[in-house]
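Input:
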Amino acid sequence: MTVRMTGGCQCGRIRYTAEVDPETAYLCHCKMCRRATGGVSTAFVNPLRDKVVWHTEPDWYQSSPIARRPFCSQCGTPLGFEFSEGATNIDLTVGSFDDPTPFRPEHNYATESMLPAWADVTHLPGYTSAENPNVIERWKAAGMAPPE
Ligand SMILES: [Zn+2]
Ligand SMILES: [Zn+2]
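Output:
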């Protein structure tokens, strides 16, 4: 079932509204996405292009002869992926949505490039941001509350 959701880049210059099915997200493990996002994998959802409204036109990077990627040239946030020709759908990065919590991955893609050490990290010890006094003090010195 599709729902209307909003998102955008870190600095707020690029904003979008998209009708997406949050149950159909996936992880791309390909090396192109790894370079484009700096992440070990990239979480995407793939709505119809005509169900995505850019309130500000994003910048586009022609990442290969067959595809281009929307991003913000001011803050650098990777926003998605689309084929240059004949695309009916577009990938949007799950992390660029204002509320990514409803998204559920339903498959992995480009598994030949998957980095298995990062596939399941739930067994590792975890620390909250509030447990890092170095960061908390820096935010306080800047007169701000630490972001989540
Ligand atoms: Zn930005
Ligand atoms: Zn990819």
